[in-house]
Amino acid sequence: MMKRREELQLVTRTWRAESAVAYQMVDACSLASLQMNGPTLRSLGVVSTIRGEGRSSVAIAMAVVQQRDYRRRVVLLEMDFERPSLARRVEADPAPGLAELVRGEASIHDVLQPLAEGMSTVTAGAGAGAGPRLIVDFMASGLLQELMGQFDVVVADLPPLLGSSFAVQAAGLFERTLLVVRSGVTPVAQIREAIASMPVEPLVLLNAVESSQPGWLRRRTGT
Questions:
Q1: Which helix (H) or strand (E) is 70 found in, with range?
Q2: Which of 62, 107, 142, 158 is 20 to 30 A from 23 in CA distance terms?
Q3: Cα–Cα distance, 208 to 25 (Å, whole number)
Q4: What's the rounded Cα separation, in Å, for the pair 200 and 177?
Q5: Is 45 part of any domain?
Q6: What gap in Å lies between CA 150 and CA 209, rounded to an integer?
Q7: By the 8 A CB rule, do 125 and 98 touch?
Q8: Model confidence over 155-189: pLDDT tens digits?
Q9: Torsion sign across C-alpha atoms 110, 115, 121, 125
């Protein structure tokens, strides 16, 4: 049976979810969302231990789930200033974005880019080389609360935990945290280090169909 293509309608064009993220990923995130009280979730930070684990794909998929499954107004927030990829992935403008918003060079209205009915994004903007400072200023700004006032849920693509000195603190801003682990890629010792660094244990999502990870990690994911 052929799977129906997920289409999110824009005013001027049709944006297909599969153009940015595989439908298998969206389905996996739909199940994971149920473990986080998805219909009532207000904010979610998506993290990884290192780069290359599919963190941005999962963040996009989680936003799609909120719009598609629960018909909620969602904003996808990019906070990886050093290696931004969201603009390319979702066909949005790279700037102005969160960097300009934090620096006071743009308003929330200026940086919000609609992707689909009920779904918008704020890209990282021009923040390369200033990531730690921008994250600290964002944490003190109250901008997350302003976004939560305009949307039902905020889904954030955060920097990797072991690659950013302020990623752990940034993750603490969000109601729930999802740690993406790419099976067979991330060293187990680094996964343990990442989980231990967080003040609240995150939900773990294995980015693989077949898992070769140890039993202790599979039990954390419910697989």
A1: helix 55-70
A2: 158
A3: 9
A4: 8
A5: yes
A6: 36
A7: yes
A8: 999 999 997 778 998 999 999 999 999 988 888 99
A9: negative
Number of helical (H) and strand (E) elements in the chain, helices listed first: 10, 9
Helices 23-34 & 55-70, crossing angle to 10 degrees?
70
Residue type present at position 113: Q
Handedness of CA 131, 135, 141, 144 (dihedral sign): positive
Token pair of 14 as six digits = 């049709």
How many domains does the structure of the chain reveal?
Answer: 1
What gap in Å lies between CA 124 and CA 158, rounded to an integer? Answer: 10
Are the CB atoms for 48 and 160 separated by under 8 Å?
A: yes
Taking the C-alpha atoms of residue 200 and residue 128, their distance in angstroms, rounded to an integer, is: 28
Coil, helix or strand for 116? strand
Per-residue pLDDT at 87 exceeds 70:
yes
The secondary structure element, H or E, covering residue 76 is: strand 74-78
- Determine the pLDDT at residue 3: 40
For position 123, what pLDDT does the model report? Answer: 98
Residue type, 141: S
Structural domain includes residue 25: no
Give CA–CA dist 149/108, Å, rounded: 12
Residue in this structure with the two tokens 């990797």, named with its chain if needed: 160
Q: Is 73 a member of any domain?
A: yes
pLDDT tens digits for range 118-156:
999 999 999 988 999 999 999 999 999 999 999 999 999
Tokens of 206: 């294995």
pLDDT of residue 18: 55
CATH number for the domain spanning 125: value is 3.40.50.300
Q: Is residue 47 part of a domain?
A: yes
Q: Which domain holds residue 178?
A: 39-221
